[in-house]
Amino acid sequence: MPTSSTLPPLGRPLPSHVHVTPSLETPAPRVAPLKVLVVGASGGSGRATIEALLDAGHQVTAYARHGAALQGWGPRVQVVEGDVLVPEQVDRAVQGHDAVIITLGIRESALRVRLFGAARTAMNVRSLGTRHVVAAMLRHGVRRLVVQTSFGVGETRDRLPRLYRLMFQLLLKPQVADTERQEREVRDSGLDWVIAQPVNLVDVRDEGLPCASARGEVQGMQVSRRQVGRFLAHAVGSSDYLGRSVALSA
Ligand SMILES: NC(=O)c1ccc[n+]([C@@H]2O[C@H](COP(=O)([O-])OP(=O)(O)OC[C@H]3O[C@@H](n4cnc5c(N)ncnc54)[C@H](OP(=O)(O)O)[C@@H]3O)[C@@H](O)[C@H]2O)c1
Question: Where is the NAD(P)-binding domain positioned along the sequence (predicted)?
Fold first, then answer.
């Protein structure tokens, strides 16, 4: 199992400390189509992930609270409406899949959430939602779990630049605390898991995979949701990063 891997980002030379793993240096071989459940499908990362899964030939179930936010994907995406905080709904959604990708978060202004709490989403949605997904996966024998958290949490806590550390402490503290709990849920799950830790997410049309490092190395502090989505779609069908926390940057 590699300890670190990356794709050359858009022709820029790689720094010497970043290791390139052949399995990602060349286009990943297409794996047999999988049935993949995406939890958090209506968010920016969820949508980018669905697009990448479809590109890779997988079948997708998009799970979200409001199905109307998920129309327009066509017949290869099944939409299932449900709340990740309701275990019975999660249980029904997980059954019959080969893998689950979680891109849960709070779709509200971070400042508002910090000052007044989230208006429409529970503050512990990441950890409690993940706990429900894990329980359902264990019940139904679904083994592969890929979870998007954040760079600067868990294994990369000490690697965060000072300015971001301040932002985590002041602006994002409760959300970061819940992401820490979420990572523990994943690590303790006993499943075949991968934790993906992107740096700041942006919405630009970057091609290819991001720089992916299981040693917590990053090339910069931005990465596109589309690149992250491609990594998540890769991780459901590959054993490259099993049991690893992987920093993603561009
Ligand atoms: N923003 C960044 O720069 C950044 C950087 C690194 C990591 N991250 C992390 O990456 C993750 C995804 O970020 P994002 O900005 O792409 O996502 P996002 O747009 O905030 O989307 C979050 C998703 O979670 C869903 N969700 C929330 N509560 C739910 C519930 N009770 N039941 C079902 N679904 C629920 C939302 O659905 P609704 O439409 O129903 O709300 C939405 O689909 C987050 O954990 C975030 O912290 C973000």
Answer: 40-236
- Give tens-digit pLDDT for 132-162: 999 999 999 999 999 999 999 999 999 999 9
In the 8-state DSSP scheme, what is residue 156?
G
With the most atoms of ligand 1 within 8 angstroms of its CB, the residue from 42, 133, 199, 228 to mutate is 42
For ligand 1, atom 5: residue with the closest CA: 200
On whether residue 131 sits in a domain, the answer given is yes
Instruction: State the CATH number of the domain containing residue 179.
Output: 3.40.50.720
**Residue 6 maps to a domain:** no
The total number of structural domains that make up the chain:
1
Instruction: Report CA torsion sign: 240, 160, 101, 30.
Output: negative
In tens, the pLDDT along 29-78 reads 467 899 999 999 999 999 999 999 999 999 999 999 998 888 888 888 99
Instruction: Please work out whether the CB of residue 7 comes within 6 Å of at least one atom of ligand 1.
Output: no
Token duo for residue 200: 């700041």
CA distance 137 to 129: 12
pTM: predicted TM-score of the whole model, two decimal places: 0.91
